[in-house]
Amino acid sequence: MSEIVELNVGGVHYTTTFETLLQEKSSLLHELFSSKNGLVKDSKGRYFLDRDGVLFRYILDFLRDKQLNLPEGFREKQRLQKEAEYYKLSGILDCIRGERESRPPGCITIGYRGSFQFGKDGLADVKFRKLSRILVCGRVAQCREVFGDTLNESRDPDHGGPDRYTSRFFLKHCFIEQAFDMLHEQGFRLAGSCGSGTAGSAAEPKPGVDAEENRWNHYNEFVFIRD
Amino acid sequence: MSEIVELNVGGVHYTTTFETLLQEKSSLLHELFSSKNGLVKDSKGRYFLDRDGVLFRYILDFLRDKQLNLPEGFREKQRLQKEAEYYKLSGILDCIRGERESRPPGCITIGYRGSFQFGKDGLADVKFRKLSRILVCGRVAQCREVFGDTLNESRDPDHGGPDRYTSRFFLKHCFIEQAFDMLHEQGFRLAGSCGSGTAGSAAEPKPGVDAEENRWNHYNEFVFIRD
Amino acid sequence: MSEIVELNVGGVHYTTTFETLLQEKSSLLHELFSSKNGLVKDSKGRYFLDRDGVLFRYILDFLRDKQLNLPEGFREKQRLQKEAEYYKLSGILDCIRGERESRPPGCITIGYRGSFQFGKDGLADVKFRKLSRILVCGRVAQCREVFGDTLNESRDPDHGGPDRYTSRFFLKHCFIEQAFDMLHEQGFRLAGSCGSGTAGSAAEPKPGVDAEENRWNHYNEFVFIRD
Amino acid sequence: MSEIVELNVGGVHYTTTFETLLQEKSSLLHELFSSKNGLVKDSKGRYFLDRDGVLFRYILDFLRDKQLNLPEGFREKQRLQKEAEYYKLSGILDCIRGERESRPPGCITIGYRGSFQFGKDGLADVKFRKLSRILVCGRVAQCREVFGDTLNESRDPDHGGPDRYTSRFFLKHCFIEQAFDMLHEQGFRLAGSCGSGTAGSAAEPKPGVDAEENRWNHYNEFVFIRD
Amino acid sequence: MSEIVELNVGGVHYTTTFETLLQEKSSLLHELFSSKNGLVKDSKGRYFLDRDGVLFRYILDFLRDKQLNLPEGFREKQRLQKEAEYYKLSGILDCIRGERESRPPGCITIGYRGSFQFGKDGLADVKFRKLSRILVCGRVAQCREVFGDTLNESRDPDHGGPDRYTSRFFLKHCFIEQAFDMLHEQGFRLAGSCGSGTAGSAAEPKPGVDAEENRWNHYNEFVFIRD
Questions:
Q1: Quick one: closest CA in D to E45, which residue?
Q2: Candidates A4, A69, A201; nearest CB to B78
Q3: In chain C, which residues have their Cβ closer than 8 Å to the Cβ of A215?
Q4: Which subunits count as partners of chain C given 3+ CB pairs below 8 Å?
Q5: What is the pTM of this model?
Q6: Residue C15, exposed/middle/buried by CB under 10 A (0-12, 13-18, 19+)?
Q7: Is 0.85 exceeded by the ipTM?
Q8: CATH for C4-101, options being 3.90.1310.10, 2.60.120.260, 3.40.50.12710, 3.30.710.10
Q9: Contact B196/E200, CB-based, under 8 Å?
Q10: What are phi and psi of B84, to 5 degrees?
Q11: Distance between CA atoms of residues B4 and C187, nearest Å
Q12: Nearest C-alpha neighbor of B57 from the set A84, C83, A18
């Protein structure tokens, strides 16, 4: 079992082992604690680091588990990055950068033109929601990341780069709640929604179009944002 | 009364008893503190654990009460799970997993086609809200979990698995606020809502349909999400 | 002046007096600290309690002021209840229970059919909002709690129990902002809102109905939720 | 330079000077620390106060700067008030009360009837938003506090007290974003919004009314709440 | 390596070096710690400062890195400003002021008149969203800051100062999600949204206007606010 080390990081006291502090070969901590050159001790004999004491909790955690495991909604990511740079902990920097790249902030809009099923009179006493298509608008790469195989790209004429914005994607299924769930799983939250009905006209509905269904047409639009 | 133990968990100090630490037979804490082999003490004589000091609060709590009782909106569940794995506390892991399974994240949409009661002219000076049916859309299992006996599934033709999405459920009653309360009790929050009116037409209303009631028809849709 | 006591509650240190600890005759603290039987001390001579150290802050506060005074938005109520049960502090349990009973979670919907005043042409250049009635829907007891004397129940035909849901209450006044303020004061927050216009018709407006006012008719609905 | 004092407030340790503690002549702290009668010391020689240790941070801050300067979104105002009452610090009580009076909670609704400018065909390819008037509804005093000189009260017939609710105020300008900014500056947040279009009619538009502009008429309503 | 200093700031203990404390020539800390005149020590020999102990964390951080790096959503900015004034740290004051000036609070509204593409019957089975123009309303300077080169100002007749409000800006592209992303990147959040449809009319659609496209016309408006 490795020797216990008492640390004073900017006034906050931590206890750990030399083994933990030496985990990362290329880090400043390895450099300092392998030779012990340049290290000073406080009046109680604790090794002293002139850095923020609170964030060192996650530095130590990373050295113990080789994983960066931050609280949900952690609000000091930028500050932690600065500390990791100071300590030359490339593993932490990679994690923070990797997360930012794989889950970039952005916005996806989901819309549908809907109505209700009125068709067979007398029979269908409950009129259920009827969606035509679920439209997906946003950055191409982000739409693909969220919807994967359920995305239909066949009607998007510009086969350009993934940073392009499109409003010509739609889903292969008609379950809006499944689309919501997939967005939610990828860290998007519903930030706003609007609905609108349609205008009536003096003209007769086209043949084959149910007058009631026509009357209930509406467009609902849902804006999802990932921070 | 059991003997007092002073602990130094990564620099945070706890005081408890051996009795508490030995509660879980298969845990690492039982293994360590029953034999005391492999345990080291810090310079003040406290037993030392090279782990996160803050999360140990809930580990200790669990050992005292045999229950996992986390703060409302606790944001370090994933980190706590990691600690429980390290300490081999299957009781905590079961709680975290069990909660995730019984209350999975997801989305349920509630919609209604509504109008106002105009019928008896001269008499009813107040026109109250009139709902046709409360429609329920979402994953089958989740809709059942929330609405139980108040759910009418009779018009859903696909009697498939509970992971299927449906938009053909509705409620046996017409009190939208009761539906909201039931969703709220199960941890869903209202994330967005949209309303739309209907289109007018040049045609006369069908016999038996009140013109005013027709004119006020609208569809309101409410999206509930559980994180 | 009472004697000072140093406490070690699960590793967190508190200082108080015997007088404070003996305030509640039927509590475990009174039992322990009046006889001092069964109490142990830590290595620094502090009395030791093998319980959560953080929540003890509110336990002590209650003993000092005989009032439970928690932070706004306190997120450990369930955990505090557990501690109060352990310490047999019925005063705290009564407070937590009482608050839950007098302010149960729930949902109230406020709706209004509105338009604008167009009547006297040439004169009224500003067209103000015109509400017919403010409709109130929700659990009977909760509607009464919030709106008290301003609630008109005369058109609710089912004079049933207070747990019933109703959609036939309305307010005696027409100031929607006053309704919002009353809901807000009782801890409800606006969780969602939807608006819809009305459908036009080929028919002439009824005699006495202003065509413009008719055209601007809309229904706005506001969902308030208390957690 | 004044003498240093070490304090133990309910177990939390503070260091300050006698000069700071004696700042407020009529306070309990002045009474206690000028005579030192009735003061006791803990085992380390720190002066002991049997009160909440965490909130004392703001008590001390106030004594140093003669100002109450709380964190944004501070959630223990009620608890701090209780402490200030105990310490007889009328300056703090005045601040808390003053803030509550000058910024009472409440609700203001902003609405506008809008359309788009279509007039000069061929020329104006972009159709901009066209607002008629920005309507302001809420408690008279609160509307005045927020909108000051930009408020037009000329059409409000009831020149009653400031606690009255009105729906007959409007703004002297037509920039809805300016209204939003003024509400935001006074601590109101946008809690909900609804939109609705208008109904069509078989009748011809009145002379001078643009048919397109007529068709796009809508009413948008924004509810702002201050906690 | 510089000499270690132990500090007691209002009861919170920090450890740092003289080198760090002397970084800012014109600060009170430089004045105090270069001469050590007027400095007092507590009973443990730590240098004592009679100021808030918690906020000193960020003061020290700034001295170490010459950068102000606050947690995301930091809620004590006003309190930190007060401390920086006391310590005469103009670097921190400049940062706080600079941020407030470059990112002032405010409101921008984004609106669009939309419909769906119906044109080529038989071919286009999916009807995609069709936007006319994305309208931008708000303070001129703020709109420019957010949208930069993508903003079209050509139709704004008042070439006044940047503090003016305008509702005559629009974007050079038609991707609403790109507009949302740009607002989001600049710290605006979506605070509310409303939609409305259009009124029908008895008149025939103008030549060249698709009847279906006409019927689905709607106006959606999104309010973004930066705190």
A1: D4
A2: A69
A3: 199
A4: A, B, D, E
A5: 0.85
A6: buried
A7: no
A8: 3.30.710.10
A9: no
A10: -60, -35
A11: 45
A12: C83
